[in-house]
Write a structure and sequence with these properties.
- The structure is a single chain.
- The protein is an alpha/beta fold.
- The chain has helices at about 20-30, 50-60, 85-115, 135-155, 170-185, 190-195, 210-220, and strands at about 10-15, 35, 45, 65-70, 115-120, 160-165, 230-235.
- The chain is built from 7 helices and 7 strands; from the N terminus they run βαββαβαβαβαααβ.
- The chain starts with 8 loop residues before the first strand and ends in a 7-residue tail after the last strand.
Length: about 240
């Protein structure tokens, strides 16, 4: 049986670990040729997403892109009065401007071929505020606006643009934090997750990166033609609380 996305090229930014890595593997399993910004087993392009010139070079080297997953992210934590200018500028560049540049460069080819899928990875913090995360909250919120604007520009072209807003999803950073918490408080892994997520994710457990990746693949599949400009929460009920 031919994989659903056989012959398509998927460019996934920030795919060395966590959700990006899970997405790269699942798109590959669906038949895609993978062009990764940080995935060693695929075609790797080590572009610095803070630099528009390197983003342009990446898109040229990648060739025609059918599926674009804007997943790259940086996180800085500090009260706004001590949030450094460099941290703010890096947040804007990597979390938001990089998506703008990849979209503006990939979209013309998608329109010309009559098919394309753009997926922007926002966050629960694109829908809810949080203290000490001005850069992250601002950029993840803006990604939702960018998604809606591009979706309307793409109507009738065969291209769609959607956003996914995960809650706290498994990453090496979260794993290390939870393991340290378990060791410090002498908790089981499950109890450490509940403690870490208390007051946020109602299930009290980390969301599997593979589950979020599966949604991304679905949004590129044969049943997704009329899904455009939508914002999907995968947060175990966090945004409903």
């Amino acid at each position: 049986m031919t994989p659903a996305l056989a012959g398509k090229t998927a460019l996934i930014t920030g795919s060395t670990q966590g959700l990006g890595l899970a997405a790269a593997k699942q798109f590959a399993a669906a038949g895609c040729r993978i062009v990764s910004n940080g995935f060693a087993d695929g075609r790797f392009i080590g572009a610095d997403l803070r630099r528009p010139d390197q983003i342009e070079a990446m898109l040229k080297e990648a060739g025609p892109v059918d599926i674009l997953v804007n997943n790259a992210v940086v996180r800085h934590t500090a009260p706004v009065e001590s949030f450094s200018v460099d941290a703010w500028n890096e947040s804007l560049a990597v979390n938001l401007s990089a998506a703008f540049h990849t979209i503006r460069l990939a979209l013309p080819g998608m329109k010309a071929r009559g098919w394309g899928r753009i997926l922007n990875i926002s966050s629960i913090y694109g829908q809810r505020g949080a203290a000490n995360r001005a850069g992250y909250v601002t950029t993840k919120t803006a990604l939702i606006g960018l998604t809606r604007a591009i979706a309307l520009e793409a109507v009738g072209t065969g291209v769609t643009c959607n956003a996914v807003c995960p809650g706290t999803t498994e990453t090496p950073v979260h794993d290390a934090t939870i393991d340290a918490l378990a060791a410090r408080l002498r908790l089981t892994r499950a109890d450490a997750e509940k403690t870490f997520l208390a007051g946020k994710q109602p299930t009290g457990r980390i969301i599997a990166a593979d589950d979020v990746a599966a949604m991304l693949v679905f949004l590129c599949g044969p049943s997704s033609n009329d899904i455009n400009g939508s914002i999907f929460s995968i947060d175990a009920g966090w945004s409903a609380a």
